UniProtKB/TrEMBL annotation:
Its EC number is 5.4.99.25. This is tRNA pseudouridine synthase B. Belongs to the pseudouridine synthase TruB family. Type 1 subfamily. Gene3D superfamilies: Pseudouridine synthase (3.30.2350.10), PUA domain (2.30.130.10). It comes from Anaerocolumna aminovalerica. It catalyses: uridine(55) in tRNA = pseudouridine(55) in tRNA. Responsible for synthesis of pseudouridine from uracil-55 in the psi GC loop of transfer RNAs. Keywords: Isomerase, tRNA processing. It comes from the Bacteria.
Length: 300
């Protein structure tokens, strides 16, 4: 079984679940999980966890993300993108400067209402399932962060604006496009979406499924997988002495007297723990007062 994270380039037409299913067939292993959904018509970076790295899925979902999107002004749809049913059309009267000011005004903290066409659950049912039945339910706004938003290209003739957005987890770019259009009083929706970065995973290093299949057939796939412990480069490394490794093999706590050295850990809450043979065990939290390490996430 392969353990690690693959930086997958999800192509249009695939759901995130499709990518996982394809990888299970390519790699001949079941323990695979993605780190956050991308709409079928969206493309770009989708980190996928293999083997024991699936325990990382929730941690990677929390990472900040970067997108490039095309905002179409003058139109609203039920899905907030061009794949949906058109609800309204309107003349775009705002000039270039007004459009730019409206877009940039969304930088910072922002209360966003999740769209009905989303995978969020209400009373045990996904919102998009209810939406397909013609039902709309009350949703609460959620605080998201737009850390940076930049205009990359204006197409004034077609009322399209290509933007780059750096944002927090849980941000819907479709809804951002919708809200920008609402602010400009002409309506707006998303025409296309490309995710270019998730945490440390960049689109320049991503692989399409066909490329992954080729590397797997050549026996070269392992070289493209990122080891689990590489996801914590800023965490100090702690090595447990051979005679005390029984504690970490059983997922138990241990003390500073059980490790080979104590430098660089006094001011660090979390560390990477290895056994005497340099096998990565997991992430532990260090309590300086009691000089004890307690397990947070195990990757045995």
């Amino acid at each position: 079984m392969i353990h690690g994270i693959i930086n997958v380039y999800k192509e249009k037409g695939y759901t995130s679940h499709d990518v996982v299913a394809k990888l299970r067939g390519i790699l001949k292993q079941k323990k695979i999980g993605h780190t956050g959904t991308l709409d079928p018509d969206a493309e770009g970076v989708l980190p996928v966890c293999l083997g024991n790295s699936t325990k990382l899925s929730d941690m990677l979902t929390d990472k900040n993300k970067t997108y490039e999107a095309v905002l179409l002004l003058g139109q609203t749809t039920d899905t907030q993108d061009v794949t949906g049913k058109i609800l309204s059309t309107c003349e775009v009267k705002a000039d270039k400067k007004q459009i730019e000011e409206a877009i940039l005004s969304f930088e910072g903290e922002y209360d966003q209402l999740p769209p009905m066409y989303s995978a969020l659950k209400v009373s045990g049912r996904k919102l998009y399932e209810l939406a397909r039945e013609g039902k709309e339910v009350e949703r609460k706004t959620r605080k998201v962060w737009i850390y940076n938003i930049r205009i990359l290209e204006f197409d004034e003739k077609n009322h399209e604006v290509r933007i780059r957005v750096e944002c927090s987890k849980g941000t819907y770019i479709r809804t951002l496009c919708h809200d920008i259009g609402a602010k400009l009083q002409c309506g707006g929706c998303m025409k296309s979406l490309l995710r270019t970065k998730v945490g440390q995973f960049s689109i320049t290093d991503s692989l399409k499924l066909s490329e992954i299949n080729e590397k797997a057939a050549e026996g070269k796939l392992l070289a493209t997988c990122i080891p689990v412990d590489d996801m914590f480069p800023d965490y100090p490394k702690v090595t447990v002495k051979e005679e005390y490794c029984k504690y970490i093999y059983n997922g138990n706590s241990f003390y500073t007297k059980h490790i080979t050295e104590t430098k660089n850990i006094n001011n660090q809450a979390q560390v990477r723990v290895y056994d005497w043979n340099n096998h990565f065990i997991g992430i532990y939290e260090f309590n300086q007062k009691d000089q004890i390490f307690k397990p947070i996430k195990m990757f045995l």
